[in-house]
Design brief:
364 residues; mainly alpha; 0% strand; disordered N terminus
């Protein structure tokens, strides 16, 4: 007896061309291009919250958590890159997280679960980047024109228009120059902030230093978990398969070099920002170290030109981060979900037709 036709378990992965594939599958990148993309995805203005994270842990636990979480996430990304290489050698190239998850965990509900989580993360990052960039513009505007009439929402609209224009770039690979500039910008504002903190710590207006933790046990536990969550989130990266897909074949070993570049920049910036900020402000560290350097009362603890330049660098990198997140969300999720949904319906319809034809042949 003839066997019934088998259903393809991953029909949506056989699509030769869709918007997401067109966006990412310009596979011409070098390993340092992957390093640029990874650095933009991981190293961002959240660096400025690290002194606040140390505030809830202290010196010892702060260093321990930053080091352990850095090593754990690096190893996780390393393993993921190896799995992607293995799947590609087996003839199953994955350019999206959800495809990898469906291949490893099954193509049922996990496929849409990963879509939901990844879309939420990247959309949130994109929206947050626009809001923070608008706030940076407002800070600059208020310093230049204290009596100006422009409101925050108007700066957010300006940033949104810029994002829309920049998101017309044709491929993920074409973002490599912008992401290289992002790498330089994160180094720039980190070193400016570190220099400003050292200057503040050595000046006559240096704030009193107190490195003690919360007095009550419950508050100490809550602060510790908050700090750990900040450090864990700061290493997050939701687009590693998409970045690896931009590498020119053969991709073997290139992603590891890109990860090493990214984590070299990450540890250089993370440790310097955390140590210098916490050294100066201790348990009075603000959630944004720039606000600690510009207190509401009293003189600024750093030269205005240095702080202004740091804000400009933060603003420009937020544009790069928002561009990556918006472009990714547009091409990989909003179109990809639509394609996957209709392809699944189409696949079910074709499968029923094949089954009906097979049954008719059996009766004949």
């Amino acid at each position: 007896m003839a066997e019934p036709p088998e259903r393809d378990p991953f029909p949506e992965f056989r699509l030769d061309s869709d918007a997401g594939a067109t966006f990412v599958l310009e596979s011409k990148g070098k390993w340092w291009h992957a390093g640029f993309h990874l650095t933009t995805a991981i190293v961002g203005p959240t660096i400025l919250t690290l002194p606040y994270a140390f505030r809830g842990l202290g010196w010892g636990l702060g260093f321990l958590c930053l080091t352990v979480l850095g090593c754990v996430t690096f190893y996780s990304y390393y393993l993921m890159s190896k799995v992607l290489e293995h799947c590609e050698k087996a003839g199953r190239r994955h350019i999206r997280f959800r495809e990898l998850a469906a291949d490893v965990l099954g193509s049922g509900w996990m496929f849409y679960f990963v879509i939901f989580i990844q879309t939420a993360i990247n959309t949130g990052v994109g929206i947050g980047a626009i809001l923070l960039a608008g706030e940076c513009l407002k800070i600059m505007y208020e310093n230049l024109s204290p009596n100006g009439s422009l409101k925050l929402y108007e700066f957010i609209e300006m940033v949104t228009v810029v994002m829309i224009v920049l998101s017309q770039l044709p491929s993920f690979h074409s973002l490599r120059h912008i992401n290289f500039a992002s790498l330089l910008l994160c180094l720039g504002y980190t070193f400016l902030m570190v220099g400003a903190c050292i200057n503040a710590g050595l000046s006559k207006n240096a704030p009193p230093r107190d490195y003690s933790l919360e007095p009550s046990g419950s508050s100490r536990v809550f602060s510790a978990f908050t700090s750990i969550s900040i450090i864990a989130a700061i290493f997050g990266n939701g687009i590693l398969p998409e970045i690896q897909a931009t590498l020119a074949p053969p991709a073997t070993g290139k992603m590891v070099k890109g990860l090493l570049m990214c984590y070299t920049v990450a540890f250089l910036t993370f440790y310097s920002a955390a140590v210098s900020g916490y050294w100066v402000f201790g348990n009075n560290s603000n959630s944004n170290i720039l606000k600690s350097l510009m207190p509401d009362e009293g003189p600024s603890l750093a030269p205005t030109i240095v702080l202004g330049l740091a804000v400009v660098f933060v603003l420009l990198q937020l544009l790069a981060i928002g561009l990556v997140s918006h472009s990714y969300a547009l091409f990989f999720h909003f179109h990809g979900v639509e394609v996957a949904f209709f392809l699944r319906l189409q696949n079910r319809f074709i499968h029923k037709l094949r089954m009906r034809s097979w049954k008719n042949n059996q009766l004949m």
